[in-house]
Design a protein that fits this description.
- The protein has 478 residues and is α/β, with parallel strands linked by helices.
- It folds into two domains: 3-270 and 455-477, 3-Layer(aba) Sandwich (Rossmann fold), CATH 3.40.50; 277-356 and 365-434, Glycogen Phosphorylase B (Rossmann fold, 3-Layer(aba) Sandwich).
- The protein is 47% helix and 13% strand.
- The protein has 19 helices and 13 strands.
- Strands 3-2-1-4-5-6-7 form a seven-stranded parallel β-sheet, with helices on both faces. Strands 10-9-8-11-12-13 form a six-stranded parallel β-sheet, with helices on both faces.
- Helix 1 runs parallel beside helix 10, helix 4 packs parallel to helix 5 and helix 12 (303-316) packs parallel to helix 17.
- It starts with 7 loop residues before the first strand and ends with a helix.
- 48% of the residues are buried.
- It binds uridine-5'-diphosphate.
- Uridine-5'-diphosphate binds at residues 17-18, 21, 270, 294, 296-298, 323, 355-356, 358-359, 375-378, 381.
- Uridine-5'-diphosphate binds next to helix 1, helix 14 and helix 15.
- InterPro entries: UDP_glucos_trans, UDP_glycos_trans_CS.
- Belongs to the UDP-glycosyltransferase family.
- Pfam families: UDPGT (PF00201).
- It catalyses: 7-deoxyloganetate + UDP-alpha-D-glucose = 7-deoxyloganate + UDP + H(+).
- This is Glycosyltransferase.
Length: 478
């Protein structure tokens, strides 16, 4: 292949770690296929990445890979969690768009590397579609949600037109939602994405609606899911996009294709330092006895919620491993006096870390359940390892994911809209013991399908091959 025909893919994630991680994984897989990669981080995330990985050593192993960074418009010392994230969304259009345009022009003019032949941009970074169209570079959209979450978000404006949104939180939250094709008997009001609880005039609603609409201007869609899990909705998505590539679970696909994935950059994709001491603690626990608890990277709990979870876990009398990030409690509120019983039980039967090697934790034989906020990465990782879940979704696609987990795939229970120590205790007991029978067969079956999808000749494996081939062809015609 001529030098100037080497595929050069520019990858642009939404600058939040739950979006950066799957994008980095895809970037690594494409780099492994011989492509040049330019990965566009925010300055904030790049700084965090540099703290957890040796980037020059990574460049030595992967000479085709380069990071660049642009501002996300927020101060560098401001943690990206809670409501500030909405500001980050709005900044993408005002701050990131002109910077990305400049970057793309400079990449095209550079004599060091061949010019970009394709952009892969997050589904919430649709300003990139304007830039790509203006500069004549093909673009693919990669919303990092699952298909059901994505399909629901794409129907936000239909929900408003049909009068199903907005609704008051005090109204009948179990009322079925009927205007999303293919999901008529699945969702209730409470299962709609968090933003559907806002006023229609809220700027976040406007942002979601316009991003969902703009996304369709990219003719090609990548999804981090697998056909066997979400086939009917993937088919529906095919009516909006010329090509749909389902290539998940990406973290597992990477492990099947890259020999030493412990050296991979995406293993640092959460941008936080992992505390691996919990693996030793897990080694000392009985088989399938531990409930793993994590609420991901952006959710904050009130002090009262944290205390309810703590009591519920302790009262369930099951050993737990809990990720308590430094900024988990809203406004860093002091916890105050903690009862001796909580302290004592946690010392004897619990383990807390500020960040866990989650993929390894979920794969550990001692882990029997996952209490999660139902972020899509966590959901897929748990599905892959055959670990049933208790869902406590809060924002975005998490509510939809929780509903799919409990009602559609039957791989867990959904606890949404409650946070009460008695319910938490009961849910943990149900998951680990009393009602485990109800879900364990489907959990194992879906895990088997997930594993099959990333093996040679599996659906996601083949779809990635197709994507690589199409990106190559694109670079020849571009
Ligand atoms: N994660 C991790 N260690 C932790 C908690 C989470 O490595 O202690 C990773 C997890 O494996 C997942 C990601 O962080 O890949 C969280 O993504 P998700 O979409 O579930 O939630 P978000 O953080 O975006 O809300």
């Amino acid at each position: 292949m001529e030098k100037d025909k080497v595929p050069h893919v520019v990858i642009l994630p939404l600058p939040l770690s739950g979006h950066v991680k799957p994008m980095l994984t895809l970037a690594e897989l494409l780099c492994d296929a011989g492509f040049l990669i330019t990965f566009v981080n925010s300055d904030y995330n790049h700084d965090r990445l540099e703290r957890v990985m040796d980037i020059p050593a990574f460049y030595n192993r992967s000479p085709g890979f380069r990071f660049v960074s642009i501002s996300d418009g927020l101060p560098l010392d401001e943690p990206r969690l809670g409501p500030i994230i909405f500001q980050l969304f709005f900044n993408t259009r005002t701050v990131s768009k002109p910077l990305f345009r400049e970057l793309l022009i400079s990449l095209r003019q550079s004599t060091k590397r061949s010019p970009p032949t394709c952009i892969i941009a997050d589904g919430l970074m649709c300003f990139a579609i304007d830039v790509a169209e203006e500069l004549g570079v093909p673009i693919i959209t990669f919303p990092t949600h699952g298909s059901h979450g994505m399909w629901t978000i794409m129907h936000t404006s239909n929900l408003i037109e049909e009068g199903e949104v907005p609704f008051q939180e005090e109204s009948d939250m179990d009322k079925p939602i009927t205007s999303i094709p293919g999901m008529e008997s699945l969702l209730r009001r409470r299962d709609l994405p968090g933003n559907c609880r806002l006023e229609v005039e809220n700027p976040l609603m406007e942002f979601i609606i316009s991003e969902a609409s703009a996304m369709k201007r990219a003719s090609t869609l990548i999804l981090n899911t697998f056909e066997e899990l979400e086939a009917p909705i993937i088919v529906q998505l095919g009516s909006f996009f010329d090509k749909v590539y389902t290539i998940g679970p990406l973290h597992a696909l990477l492990k099947t294709r890259i020999k030493d994935s412990s050296q991979s950059v995406s293993s640092c994709g959460s941008l936080r330092k992992e505390d691996s001491s919990c693996m030793e603690w897990l080694n000392s626990q009985p088989l399938k006895s531990v409930i793993y608890v994590s609420f991901g990277s952006v959710i904050e709990l009130s002090r009262d919620q944290l205390i309810e979870f703590w009591h519920g876990l302790v009262n369930s009398r099951k050993p737990f491993l809990w990720v308590v990030t430094q900024d988990l409690v809203e406004g860093n509120e002091e916890l105050g006096q903690i009862s001796e019983e909580l302290e004592q039980w946690t010392k004897e039967k619990g383990y807390m870390v500020s960040w866990a090697p989650q993929e390894e934790v979920l794969a550990h034989p001692s882990v029997g359940g996952f209490l999660t906020h139902s972020g899509w990465n966590s959901t897929l990782e748990s599905i892959f390892e055959g670990v049933p879940m208790i869902c406590w979704p809060q924002v975005a696609d998490q509510q939809v994911n929780g509903r799919c987990v409990s009602k559609l795939w039957r791989v867990g229970f959904d606890m949404k809209d409650t946070c009460d120590r008695f319910i938490i205790e009961k849910m943990v007991r149900d998951l680990m013991e009393d009602k485990r029978e109800e879900i364990i067969r489907s959990t194992n079956e879906i895990a088997r399908m997930a594993r099959g999808s990333v093996k040679e000749n599996g659906s996601s494996h083949c779809n990635l091959e197709r994507l690589i081939e199409d990106l190559r062809l694109m670079s020849l015609t571009n």
